Amino acid sequence: MAGARVADILTALVAAGPAASWPHRLVEGCRRATDMSGVGLVLTGRGLLGEVLAVTDGPAQQMEDLQFALGEGPCVDASRSGDSVFCSDLRSDGSAPRPAFSSGALEAGVAAAFTFPLHVGSSAIGVLDLYRDSAGPLSNGRVSEAVAFADASVAVRRKPCRCGCARK
């Protein structure tokens, strides 16, 4: 089932337009499918934050900038560990290992953050960050959707293939 959902997401991206629009279309599709306030797609390397590939409107860019500036947050944790990080209530998470991020997120109106690592084999190459303006856990259905979008994100490329194939 998960593979079929990933295929549906990728098929929709291809049908929607040129490859250059795929990262933005992917985060926007994820935001709608998971009912989040914002979504960010970040490439990472060796456990460090790298490049913001795409963000939705709203708090996503602000949250990515905050994590880059602070060097802490769920994106940083997931990038280092390769595991998903769920912060379903940043108010109660304030004394956890990311107090500055939690404080900044709450100030920006973000009450919950969920990060899904992007894997190629055993290597984590990035993360898909989901932000919500209300606290509370993700339902199983929303987790499944987020995982499918994270899996589809691995196939989204910023630069075209040199061979000129359809994976541009």
Topology:
Elements: H1 2-16, H2 22-34, E1 38-45, E2 48-55, H3 60-70, H4 74-81, E3 85-87, H5 99-107, E4 112-120, E5 123-132, H6 140-153
Antiparallel strand pairs: 1-2, 1-5, 3-4, 4-5
Question: TL;DR?
Answer:
With 168 residues, this protein is α+β, with helices and mostly antiparallel strands. It has six helices and five strands. It has helices at residues 2-16, 22-34, 60-70, 74-81, 99-107, 140-153, and strands at residues 38-45, 48-55, 85-87, 112-120, 123-132.
Q: Please, could you describe this protein's structure?
A:
The protein has a single domain, classed as GAF domain (Beta-Lactamase). It contains 6 helices and 5 strands; from the N terminus they run H-H-E-E-H-H-E-H-E-E-H. The chain has helices at residues 2-16, 22-34, 60-70, 74-81, 99-107, 140-153; strands at 38-45, 48-55, 85-87, 112-120, 123-132. A 5-stranded antiparallel sheet has the order 2-1-5-4-3, with helices on both faces. Strand 4 and strand 5 form a beta hairpin. Helix 1 (2-16) packs across helix 2 (22-34) and helix 2 (22-34) packs antiparallel against helix 6. It is globular and about 40 Å long. The model is unreliable at 159-168 (pLDDT under 50).
Structural features:
23% strand, single chain, 168 residues, alpha+beta, Beta-Lactamase, 42% helix, 5 strands
Q: Specify the CATH architecture.
A: 2-Layer Sandwich
Name given to the CATH homologous superfamily = GAF domain
Strand content: 15-25%
How many distinct folded domains?
1
Mean pLDDT: 86
CATH secondary-structure class = Alpha Beta
The CATH topology corresponds to Beta-Lactamase
* Strand adjacency order, main sheet: 2-1-5-4-3
State the secondary-structure class. alpha+beta
* H/E series: HHEEHHEHEEH
Shape: globular
Amino-to-carboxy terminus distance: 26 Å
Radius of gyration (CA) equals: 15 Å
- Largest beta sheet, briefly? 5 strands, antiparallel
Number of strand segments: 5
Helix percentage range: 40-55%
> What is the count of helical runs?
6
Parts with pLDDT < 50 across at least 5 consecutive residues: 159-168
